């Protein structure tokens, strides 16, 4: 792991507050650009940000939200799209206007052109200040599946069988899970100024350990974060069980 990485291991009931503290501590005050991961893992973080906004403790209404990925074939009106997720769980509760929300268009007639344009849109905005990321049980980062080039940029990818099975819980059946997605690439993600990697649950333990303590390898896409100079990892205890002692010890000493 990069010498500047921090690893914070927390109880599940403090996950949201710990993650919110870290993210808010890293965000610049002026027009922050927050990279949004979807999925179940960051939900306690988004709920905590919403609570703080509702109590008037924070104001992120001028923030930009930049999604990591989107399913090909699902549009913003589809409640299972990542666009709907970002609006429902983050933009609306934080009072962020739709114009400030970037998500690849899953219904674009030319998904490859949309992927290229999305990469450009992120650059035009000045990049991401803080990227929230989760990790797949197979080590994927966003929808960069095992085998993804470490220097990849935003593109159309085919989802692995493992990922489609993992994500089937959000759909009526596995057959409804799209086969393709538009995802920021590993190089795109690594251009964020800071990355906050979140992991919850025992099914993430092996992937998290491989990503943080194994070799940097295309087979474990999240391992690319070892090359990033400003990564904070927040894991609940069940996701941290396979981390080598040296990582957790450093965390306890530093945080
Ligand atoms: C999904 C998303 C990722 C997410 C990961 C883990 O497929 N594309 O961005 O981080 O897989 O999801 P979850 O948090 O639901 O386990």
Task: Please explain how this structure is put together.
Helix 7 (205-213) links the parallel strand 9 and strand 10 (231-236). This protein has helices at 15-26, 43-54, 82-94, 111-124, 161-167, 186-190, 205-213, 245-254; strands spanning 6-10, 33-36, 64-67, 69-71, 101-102, 130-133, 155-158, 180-183, 194-199, 231-236. It has 255 residues and is an alpha/beta fold. Helix 1 crosses helix 2 (43-54) and helix 2 runs parallel beside helix 3. A 7-stranded parallel β-sheet has the order 1-10-9-6-2-3-5. The chain binds 2-amino-2-deoxy-6-O-phosphono-alpha-D-glucopyranose (GLP). 2-amino-2-deoxy-6-O-phosphono-alpha-D-glucopyranose is lined by residues 37-41, 68-69, 134, 136, 142-143, 163, 167.
Hetero compounds: 2-amino-2-deoxy-6-O-phosphono-alpha-D-glucopyranose
Q: H/E element string?
A: EHEHEEHEHEEHEHEHEH
Please state roughly what percent of the residues sit in beta strands, choosing from under 5%, 5-15%, 15-25%, 25-35%, 35-45% or over 45%.
Answer: 15-25%
Strand segment tally: 10
Question: So what's the overall shape?
Answer: globular
User: Number of helix segments?
Assistant: 8
CATH class call: Alpha Beta
Judging by the overall fold, what is the CATH architecture? 3-Layer(aba) Sandwich
Gyration radius over CA: 17 Å
Characterize the largest beta sheet: strand count, sense, and whether it forms a barrel.
7 strands, parallel
**Are there runs of 5+ residues with pLDDT below 50, and where?**
none
| Class from helix and strand fractions | alpha/beta
Q: How is the CATH topology named? A: Rossmann fold
- As for the number of domains, it is 1
Strand order of the largest sheet: 1-10-9-6-2-3-5
Helix content: 25-40%
Distance between the termini: 16 Å
Q: What assembly state would you assign to the polypeptide chains in this entry?
A: single chain
- Overall mean confidence score, pLDDT: 95
């Amino acid at each position: 792991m990069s010498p500047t990485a921090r690893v914070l291991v927390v109880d599940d009931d403090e996950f949201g507050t710990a993650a919110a503290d870290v993210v808010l501590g890293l965000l610049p005050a002026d027009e922050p650009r927050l990279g949004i991961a979807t999925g179940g893992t960051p939900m306690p973080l988004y709920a905590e940000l919403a609570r703080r906004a509702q109590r008037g403790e924070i104001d992120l209404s001028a923030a930009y939200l930049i999604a990591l990925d989107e399913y090909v074939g699902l549009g913003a009106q589809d409640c299972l799209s990542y666009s709907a997720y970002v609006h429902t769980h983050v933009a609306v509760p934080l009072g962020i206007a739709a114009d400030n929300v970037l998500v690849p268009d899953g219904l674009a007639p030319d998904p490859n052109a949309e992927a290229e344009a999305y990469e450009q849109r992120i650059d035009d905005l000045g990049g991401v200040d803080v990227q929230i990321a989760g990790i797949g049980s197979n080590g994927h980062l966003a929808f960069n599946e095992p085998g993804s080039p470490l220097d990849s940029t935003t593109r159309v990818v085919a989802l692995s069988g493992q990922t489609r099975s993992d994500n089937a819980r959000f759909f009526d059946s596995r057959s409804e899970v799209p086969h393709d997605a538009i995802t920021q690439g590993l190089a795109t993600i690594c251009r964020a100024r800071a990355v906050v990697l979140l992991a919850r649950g025992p099914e993430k333990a092996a992937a998290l350990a491989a990503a943080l303590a194994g070799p940097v390898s295309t087979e474990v896409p999240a391992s690319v974060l070892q090359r990033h100079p400003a990564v904070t990892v927040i894991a609940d205890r069940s996701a941290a069980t396979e981390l080598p002692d040296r990582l957790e010890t450093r965390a306890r000493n530093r945080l």
